[in-house]
Specification:
Elements lengths: L14 E10 L2 E10 L2 E7 L2 E8 L4 H11 L9 E9 L2 E8 L1 H14 L13 H4 L13 H11 L4 H6 L3 E6 L5 E7 L2 H15 L7 E4 L5 H9 L4 E4 L5 H10 L2 E7 L2 E6 L16
Length: 283
């Protein structure tokens, strides 16, 4: 990937203070609260605005790269030539310069959406088009000790969540459960995209280790993980039925309800290592 430039909004604020009244025991008193920012973020490819996401305005270079990869706009980070982040009156615009072939494909995708109306998944004409094919992955062997180690450390890598209580976290963990990278956002998909972008930029290998997310595991989270070769997804909350189906199709290790001392295994291609906790529902 070529060296990237950034505009004057390289480190935008991700929180702001708000005056509130705290009520403790029926006695309200003035106070100040810290609130996570949520702003429109436009992703603009070679001058063409493709998507606007509501996101926390931090690590937007990671977000733009991760989104581009997990949504199939780019096939590799080397196809991103330049990136600039600009603060505008209505939000933030991330301008990406991408390879000509990828831009041509993006334009074709955009044309396929033109003139279609209705609710549901935009741009789909049939049930078969609603869900993108999931990329097969190789599930690593992940032990209970590693999962528990990563869970115990996750909160230390979520400073914005600790301050505001409003953000999701996504972490890349090695085979021993050490958190190597983590990103936060008000949106769970955004947090995972930011993590993937950061991991790709730093040269992390997805061959071993696992992604840990502080949210539920929806089918989009499974798709995004598989799209870059992540073989194991551990979620603090529940998976959806489609997430389980896609995980089984792709060969992804899928664990939900990961809490202290327990977790639920929904798909386990490689089998957890010796000493793994039995799968049981959080109750």
């Amino acid at each position: 990937m070529a060296e990237r430039r950034t505009g004057h909004c390289h480190h935008p604020a991700v929180r702001r203070p708000v005056d509130v009244r705290r009520d403790s025991g029926g006695t309200p008193a003035p106070a100040e609260d810290s609130i996570a920012l949520e702003v429109p973020v436009a992703l603009v490819y070679n001058g063409i605005s493709h998507a606007v996401m509501m996101a926390t305005p931090g690590d937007l270079d990671d977000f733009a790269l991760g989104f581009s990869l997990t949504e199939g706009i780019l096939q590799s980070a080397q196809e991103l030539y330049d990136l600039e982040v600009h603060e505008e009156a209505a939000g933030i615009a991330v301008h990406l310069e991408i390879a000509a072939q990828r831009l041509t494909e993006l334009k074709q995708r955009r044309r396929s959406l033109t003139g279609r109306t209705g609710c549901g998944l935009c741009g789909t004409e049939s049930l078969q088009q609603a869900i993108r094919p999931v990329r097969p992955v190789t599930a690593p062997v992940v032990g209970d000790t590693a999962i528990q180690h990563a869970l115990a450390a996750l909160s230390q890598h979520q400073p914005l969540q600790q301050e505001t209580g409003a953000t999701h976290g996504a972490a890349w963990c090695d085979a021993e459960g050490n958190v190597r990278l983590a990103r936060e956002d008000v949106g769970r998909h955004n947090a995972l995209d930011k993590l993937i972008g950061a991991a790709v930029k730093s040269g992390e290998s997805f061959a071993d280790g696992f992604a840990l997310v502080s949210s539920r595991a929806s089918y989009e989270m499974v798709q995004k993980s598989c799209s870059v070769g992540i073989g194991a997804l551990i979620a603090v909350s529940a998976p959806t039925s489609l997430a389980i189906d896609l995980a089984r199709d792709a060969g992804l290790l899928l664990v939900g309800f990961a809490r202290s001392g327990r977790h639920v295994i929904y798909n386990n291609p490689a089998a957890l290592t010796e000493g793994a906790a039995p799968a049981r529902h959080a109750g």
